[in-house]
Amino acid sequence: MENLTTIGKLAKAQGVRAATLRYYEQMGLVPATRRTAAGYRVYGEDAARRLHFIRRAQALGFSLEEIAELLNLSDRPHASAGEVKKITRRKIAEIETRVRDLERMKRALMQIEHRCSGHGSTAKCPILAALGEDRS
Amino acid sequence: MENLTTIGKLAKAQGVRAATLRYYEQMGLVPATRRTAAGYRVYGEDAARRLHFIRRAQALGFSLEEIAELLNLSDRPHASAGEVKKITRRKIAEIETRVRDLERMKRALMQIEHRCSGHGSTAKCPILAALGEDRS
DNA sequence: CTTGACCTTCAAGCTGACTTCAAGGTTTAA
DNA sequence: TTAAACCTTGAAGTCAGCTTGAAGGTCAAG
Q1: Could you give the residue ranges of the DSSP H alpha helices within A77-136?
Q2: What would the pLDDT profile of B59-109 be if each residue is shown by its tens digit?
Q3: Domains in chain B, ordered, with CATH?
Q4: B38 to chain A nearest CA, in Å?
Q5: CB distance B88–A59 less than 8 Å?
Q6: Nearest residue: Cα versus C1' of C18
Q7: If you average pLDDT over residues A9-23, what whole number do you get?
């Protein structure tokens, strides 16, 4: 089954507002859908997957513009392979940097947690030290 | 040496604007500094470390409010250990989720990169599949 | 001892990502 | 068949996180 749905149902299912979906469409994040005779938007389940991706990526700190760029990568499967590859590698590198920074922050937080259990001494500001080295 | 400096120098050194530093002070992200007789702000190097942390944390997608919360953890070393511990654990869990999501996104990008080298077939939309499972 | 590069505050303006509102047309359930 | 619950567009409002501008005080170099 194709599982067609209206904007309101898709929105509710994904925990966003219908207005947000229209906004994403306007911003080019989701393609303009086909419409009913009355002009109502009609969504298939690919729309749900796409929307889900957008929300998760956002939670990871990507801007809508960056997300559009990521989605573009998979939308144009073989278009200008060289460029796609370049962007992809850049994104991968960005992600690796983020992960490293997050791991450092995590270690700092674990130190704080440990210290707060009474085991640590006055070792000061592990969190500030966390992202202290090397420039982005 | 204590390495005291003015707002302009600190700002330039960290690649932000002086106005941004004033804004952070206003928002409570950096404590109000002492001033010269003329009312000029005077910064020590702790300010530089703090600022550096703020910028990196921002790049990781934390809001200023969240960053303030993180900084508070290290500012009040032993204040209400129970609460600090709770917040710390929550932040650690959040970070772990983020890292997992980023790793998934990275794997998807690597598939795209691979596919674009001509090795892959029409395996479609690895990026959409990337964050497709389990809810945040 | 003045000129230009700083610093001060306060207020208004801008961008991204929505949200809300107004004024309507459509669908559906009683 | 009509009222509630949808949908449409367009435009304005909101919040975070700055940026810019105005109007003025301070400091360092020549």
Answers
A1: 81-116, 126-130
A2: 888 899 989 988 887 666 555 667 667 778 888 998 999 999 999 989 888
A3: 7-75 (1.10.1660.10)
A4: 31
A5: no
A6: A20
A7: 96
